[in-house]
Each structure stands twice: as C-alpha cells, then as structure tokens.
C-alpha cells in the first residue's frame, strides 16, 4: 500500500528536524513530547523507513532517507502555504491571475519597474504578459484575452472599452552614424529620404490594416516587430522611427544618431490604460494601472530626453538641451 502521510505529520517532522530535538519541537508546537514522538513513529510506519537515528545521541539525527524526505516535506508544506495565501486573496477579491497587454511603445524601464513591484506586492497572483505593436494591445483587451492594456495607438473608439490617458512617449527617427542621411549634416527634406530604405513595422492587428504611420520613403522594408526593426537599423540597413526610451543607450554610445527630419511627426503621443466596461479590474490589476500612471508621469519629455543622452542635433553645434 502506498504511503499516505498527513500534513500534520509532515509539519511535526519538519519542526523536529529544524529545532534539533523532540523536546524543542514539543515547545514550538505546544504539544506533549510523547505526542511528538508518537507522530514521528506513525510517519515512519507510513513510509516504512526510519527518519531519525535515535541511538548513541541525545539529539535525533536524520538518516539518509530522512534528509531526502525532509526536502519533500518542505516543498509540500510550502505549496500548502501558497494555496492558503491564494485562498485568502480570492476571498478578499484578489485575482488569481492578471492578464496584461503592453505595447512596445511603453518605455521598457517603466514596464520593468512596475512588474518588479507587482511581483513583490502580489506574490501569489499569476501574471500573463503579451506585448505587441500598434493595435494588438486593443485587440487583446477587446477579445477578453487580456484584462487590461497599456499602450498608445487607440485607433478607434469603442463604447465597450474604458480608455484613460496615463502618460506619454514619442518616436524619434534615427540611423547609424555612417548612414547617408546622417552624413548630410543638415536638416533633411522629404526628397532626401524618399529613396532611402525605411524600416517599418507591420502590425498583426486587423485594426490597422491598410494604415501607415510616418511612412515617408518610397522604399520600405516591413518587419513584424519593433525589436527586429531596431536591430536592422543598428545594422545600417535603413532608417526609421523608434520609441525614444528604446534607444537611449544607443544614442548615448553613438551607435545611432537622431535625424533632423521635420516631416517625421515626433510629437509626444499619449499612452492609455484600456479595459472592458463589463470587466472592471480587481485589486491587483487596478494597482498595476495606477503604478503605470505614476511611473509614466515621471518619463522625460523630448527636451529632457535629449539633454539626458547629451546628443547633438545634425547641423547644430549646441547641445540639444540648450
């Protein structure tokens, strides 16, 4: 017959092993020492193996089998604590899982900071994270696959959605220092960029089918995601716009340079929190929305960003912040 130890037996076993004696375990658990001894004896009978060496020493010493079983007991009791914490959270309305869709336009450092604090505040709430371009975030929320969405590009109004502005970001046209556009040393015109390859992200979302944003070149290479676009631009295969926060280190280290291109819309665009009207966020999701609002409110604007990376605008001998 397979062993069937009780949780109480495992708790007593763990307490004896960690306290170092049966008497110490009896004090910790507020039970008679005889009860502790009887419980361990029953557990050993269940497992059909000794867990402690009792001869030759006043202090019980774990057998080889006991050391192996101790790790199992710790894991089982730890899982029990997780279960109890989740049950307590569910009873108070805390979600078992938060599904969030985050646009790549959201500054990466803000996302990392919020999710790190989320992990610490809600250790027993599972997280499902999806990232995407342009309309993907909206589609994930509208379909119910994500509880909340954080991002920009609200491409259509929908009465079924609650949309709140919580911050801002902006795109910056860039290329490598050796790219022909970067070598011109003056403000660029549309004629300058028309025949140069522009890297463009093609959104998987149906919400933006047939729509282009800031596409100025006649020659376009279309890629599926912002990370690929970033790597191809860094490889000198074309120019394109990237979220400013995405490329701060590249600008600081001179791997990329900004293009002074008035035709490219670099105005700040809003970042929204999006959710369905009929699916209000629970405590953990509501906290996440407010955490993003707080974090994004501290993101630099364009002038602050340019000062932070200490870059020169093409054709300008002064620091961009001046």
UniProtKB/TrEMBL annotation:
PROSITE patterns (alphabetical): HTH_LYSR (PS50931)
Record-given protein name: HTH-type transcriptional regulator TtuA
Keywords, sorted A to Z: DNA-binding, Transcription, Transcription regulation
Keyword Translocase (UniProt): no
HTH lysR-type domain residues: 5-63
Domain of life: Bacteria
UniProt keyword Acyltransferase present: no
Gene3D superfamilies: 3.40.190.290, Winged helix-like DNA-binding domain superfamily/Winged helix DNA-binding domain
GO molecular function, one term: transcription cis-regulatory region binding
SUPFAM superfamilies: Periplasmic binding protein-like II, Winged helix' DNA-binding domain
Function: Transcriptional regulator of the ttuABCDE tartrate utilization operon.
Entry's transmembrane regions: none
Entry-linked PANTHER family: HTH-TYPE TRANSCRIPTIONAL REGULATOR, LYSR FAMILY TRANSCRIPTIONAL REGULATOR
Family: Belongs to the LysR transcriptional regulatory family.
